[in-house]
């Protein structure tokens, strides 16, 4: 079946329909990761957006359901050059085609994704429609596209009730599994341990209680902490600061999430209260932006954002550059920072934009990018260790 | 960290002659690095024995020493030039080994020279098998169960504990020489014994066989501050067991999920960090196909063939960045040259798929085993880029120039199901064609996967291509089907064959429906950032990105495709220099090439680079878009010449010598007419198509005769025949591939072979110098030792040669370069062949005379005359030094290849000896080629009866040098009669000890074996020669070469005169 991608500027791409058959209007963004399409599809930060993968061959290894970063897929649409006819991987559960249908996600394949990317790069992120209606009328479609906003999406993606993930003792019992020679098939099959290798080498978080505010969290945030031994309590986005603080966490994590941070007015108020507490805080992506907004800084929408697994981030404390996983369309305005409140701790080497803040006189640091990876480089996993260290020092003090 | 201010004078070590496993990629890396160093104001002293390289140009380095790459020579250059540092990580394994040797001996420290880039300790950690294993164990990165052994007994004992099969890898060798997989004790003993000897340190790693696992590579960069990035990863379609250099490789990996991708990426970063590498590094992994288990196979702490491939696949200039890192810069301080906006501290992301295919030399060595193992055999490679895998594979196949253009090109249709299943077990260069046939016969993916262990994703892609073949065969050819076929990169001629419609009709149908190639940019960032780098590849479907350019005159330079025996790096040298010369003259330059190892495919050589196959259709698509004012074909070897006719049909003017004149030189009848007009003699001969005709001509001329196809390079298929039987045999071989042109049969004349390269402006000629071959006619010029200035011919002969060259160039209306080979017999001069184009000797003669003949030829093509360029026409004054070009072979890498020299070229590379005296130059040339004798002072002489006389003289001279000479019966008798104390040894068929036992005893320096005629593989001579080569014994098959060797040994020396080639003034240029 034919499908069309119609952009706000009137550009129309003709391709083949994939996934669910339904018409959708959304904000069109592109992601430059070469692998990890499932992680992209299940990242709640994509709620309210349709994602175009710049890598042309998608679906090669099918869908391994255990790699999902949340309970469902979130993007409104999926745009690819080509979907693989067969999936090939020893863990594959279903094909990407089946997954898109199951998750009711419409999409388009067979278009010049590079040409689309160039349009978004040059004109900035814009809205678009994916439709199978060959009789579309631009005069009626375009005004509808202009109207679309992602709106308050955090509420849609956050968990409904709080829940607890117990810290793993896997490492203590089985040793690190980063080295594959120690991969224990039997233990995996008996459910005793994970299939996937991890980069965690030390159980430094045992006994630490972390409160994770789920603004649309990727699974691997809680997982990264739990793998290090932390017990993680996950709270819905609209939980009050009081409720969280009453549980006496050793540290608080603010997760990633979708949409314009300025839409999250009530959450920002609660985060301000968390800031005022003495509990160490580590925030990622949307959480980082909300903390900035809660403390008087500003955010703005980038022309086309950072979405991919190859962005260099400089840790200003050490001078080291790390390759990071990124997914954000908004960024903290560094010009409007009050150094008495927060100073830049990380910057993007490519465009010099802010990638993280350190809060003056506080046990708080936040990053714009994704130390939990999935998809993308695992180089910044050390930040979880930094957070655990921060909790330790705070407790000792 | 900014640049280290103490680094001002850097010595860069090149990789030496091109051999299998160490090819043009190091010229590319070295050239890029030297330019990068010079950009930083650093003085570069370059040492490389290979004169065919671009890196040894005076434009690339400040001081250039084309000297043998031995520690002793390097020490002398260091003493003379006093560099403050040396950079050994750009010259491949050869350069790295030398750097290590100088560091370990303490020479560097005592002369205050720093090792730049990676330290000696790091190199040792990565290269020494045991240290590497210990290091990996320490950081928890798994290696396959293995043990370093120093004796066969240890190897056998260890294997008993881990079980067969085992893989054997000798330490410190190139391209895995001497390695292999042993399935039983007998195999283990054979391979191990050999590997122990070839290893520089007498060590071989015996390891658990992980054959069949996925082979995945990561190219990693690290700076001195510890910042690490991966440039890209690559997946070998052929699982572990085939050397990555011989594998079909795809970038990025296709069948890894993010979990596997990141697991291995993190492991690669852990490894490079632990090894403290500063610069580029290649990490190879084996990944279990059905679990997360993986092993580190090896780490190359330097730029490599894979890093050249990764550079071209991503646009990330690894060598350039590695050089900057060596100077002290960190990745976030180095600009990304492609975008000009971002920095080197990022990871390229691809929005296309890259396929690399090896160029294997089995068309040259028809007796050789085609199987692929852990020992690399490819002489070169091609790369292609497309937005789908199928298209990239199809483009790569037709880039090979091996008479293949689709998966039907090797015909296995005669095999039935069972035979196919058997055939599929053979791992060779034809395996994908066998798989395609299996798919045609309906064999399922699982079965194919179980036998080949190739991932089903790739098998499915082959199936998609097979389905398209069928769809085209069945028809009807709708516009939709044609569109899809072109998306999969089926060339028009294949579509024509499958549909039975003429190619012109296919093309018209395409054009009528707007099905044309569009060009996309390689920009390192998947279009995320704007890039201005004009590096393009074609796809069908989508928007064209290749931009209209300035209204300058535009010239198309056709590259020379993959490196193969007979068409090597020399032609890349010519293409690059021509491009630069055109640019200097104000032209806009466009290069088309498909070889990822070369300088010409670097994105900043021409104004535009099209990384595309060099077939008429692919070139036409580019011509339609670029509309060049002209094309030059005379610099790109036979690859470019072959495109002449097509270019003319497209209406592209051929710049320089006209196509008709190129034809006249190749066409027997036309050429005979020209010789008659100009009064130049040649050997009598005739043109034939069939064996019958050939025998008739041969009998008319009288044997021996020379048989060869026309329009080939490197004497491919050329043979000396002495009988009707041999004519039959050779004609059969030649006619295995349909010949578009007749076959030539000439009377074989024996004499001195002379070669000249000249520039002609249509009126006058310029001959930089005359080269004389040490070997008599009959040995291909590319395999002969070549001496400039010609040492033994008279002035009369020289004058005749100059005059004949002038006449021929004029008669052929040559504008640009011409190469002519002559035979001198006494004072008589005959012409052998004329090539109105650049040749293999162009870089060599340019460098040793200081006359930049490619630049001059380009100027002449544009319209200048030789006089206007400042030269007096004719033969230029001779040098007061000697420069000797020595061929270098890679026979040990190709099992079963006949090594004896003849009219068909077999060498893969060359090195130079340059010195004040002939003898020193000769000694250096042999030394540069790796012949460093004496060792044990024992040798074997076994020559055909006709050579006995010469063997006596050579035997006497070796005896004087203290050699014990062993000889087979007839040679021995002849030697003894002449008073040489030879010891007789038995032939192989006789009782032990035979000549084979002697060779296998490993105390022999040299075998001189001149072959009797014929190509019978079972003959004693063949076995002797193969055994010698495979056990690392020098083997000489021509008496002239033997005489040259003994001469050089009589003048063995330790202190050399060093000549800075960059300081050689252009001979003959008027001040």
Q: Which sheet architecture does the biggest sheet of chain B show?
A: 9 strands, mixed
State the distance separating the first and last CA atoms of chain B. 46 Å
The tally of structural domains of chain A comes to: 2
CATH topology of the domain at 355-515 in chain B: Carbamoyl Phosphate Synthetase, Chain A, domain 4
- Helix and strand content put the structural class of chain B at alpha/beta
In short:
The complex is a heterodimer of chains A (397) and B (1071). With 397 residues, chain A is an alpha/beta fold.
Keywords:
heterodimer; A: 397 residues; alpha/beta; Rossmann fold; 10-stranded mixed sheet; 7-stranded mixed beta barrel; 28% strand; globular; B: 1071 residues; Carbamoyl Phosphate Synthetase, Chain A, domain 4; 9-stranded mixed sheet; 36 helices
Task: Provide a descriptive summary of the structure in words.
- The complex is a heterodimer of chains A (397) and B (1071).
- Chain A is an alpha/beta fold.
- Chain A has helices at 37-41, 96-102, 113-123, 138-147, 154-157, 170-174, 185-189, 219-227, 241-246, 265-276, 286-294, 382-396, and strands at residues 2-7, 12-19, 24-31, 49-53, 57-58, 77-79, 82-83, 106-109, 126-131, 163-165, 209-214, 231-236, 251-254, 281-284, 299-315, 321-332, 342-348, 354-359, 364-367.
- In chain A, helix 10 crosses helix 11.
- The longest helix of chain B has 19 residues, at 456-474.
- Chain B is α/β, with parallel strands linked by helices.
- In chain B, strands 27, 28, 29, 30, 31, 32, 33, 34 and 35 form a nine-stranded mixed β-sheet that branches.
- Among the domains of chain B are: 9-118, 3-Layer(aba) Sandwich (Rossmann fold), CATH 3.40.50; 145-209, Dna Ligase, domain 1 (2-Layer Sandwich); 355-515, Carbamoyl-phosphate synthetase, large subunit oligomerisation domain (Carbamoyl Phosphate Synthetase, Chain A, domain 4), CATH 1.10.1030.10; 519-655, 3-Layer(aba) Sandwich (Rossmann fold), CATH 3.40.50; 933-1050, Methylglyoxal synthase-like domain (Rossmann fold, 3-Layer(aba) Sandwich).
- Chain B is built from 36 helices and 40 strands.
- The radius of gyration of chain B is 28 Å and the shape is globular.
- Chains A and B meet through helix 3, strand 15 and strand 16 of A and strand 11, helix 9 and helix 16 of B.
